[in-house]
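Case study 2.
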Amino acid sequence: QVQLLESGGGLVQAGGSLRLSCAASGSISSLNLMAWYRQAPGSQRELVAVIRSGGSTWYADSVKGRFTISRDRAKNTVYLQMNSLKPEDTAVYYCNIPPLWGQGTQVTVSS
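Prediction:
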């Protein structure tokens, strides 16, 4: 069974950067959409960024201009470059390549 393996989370000071990676452990037949979500304590999971099959992207207003989603289709991998991080970006980040979900990776931004 194909799994999504996330990496790159951690603790960073406000203003810093992190790059999250999400690699599929096997071949995925459909890569129409790849996305990142996040869930902060006590909050619902929210959509952060999307990259569609044609390469177009979408970002939540809260991260627009600071985060960049990209992919390597040959490697079945999606990335999330996060710059100018803020304490409110603290959350568990999940990648999603429907219908698969990653296990989540913790991002903590200290003030």
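The chain has a mean pLDDT of 94.
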